[in-house]
Amino acid sequence: MNIHPETGKDGESYNQGRGYEQLKQFVESELEVKCLVASPEGCSEKEVEFMDKMKAKGVEDIEKQHTRLQGMAGKSMTPDLKKWLFQRINILAQLKDQ
After folding, report:
1. What DSSP string describes 4-31?
2. Does any domain span residue 13?
3. What is the pLDDT of residue 53?
4. Residue 48 resides in a domain
5. CB within 8 A of 1, min separation 6: which ones?
6. 1 pLDDT tier (thresholds 50, 70, 90)
7. How many domains, the chain?
C-alpha cells in the first residue's frame, strides 16, 4: 500500500458530486496518469507541441498562462476542451516547478 506523505493512508475525503460526469471529471483531473514534462514519452503530440512552446517562454509567461487556464477550469465547455484544458494546466504546473 502506498501512503501519501500529505494525506496519510486514508487519503482525502471525496466531497464532490456522485453523478457519472462529476466522477469522470474527478478521475481525469486528479487520478489519471498524466503527461510528464521530464519524461514526455507518454504525452500526445499536441501536449509535446504545447510543452515545447511554453518552454521557450519565460517563467512569467508560464505563470500567467497557468493562472488564466485555472480560471477557466470551472467554466462550461465540451468534454474534449475540458480535457485539453487540464492537460495544459498539468504541463504548466510541472514547468513552474522546474
Report:
1. BTTTBTT-----S--SHHHHHHHIIIII
2. no
3. 97
4. yes
5. 9
6. very low
7. 1
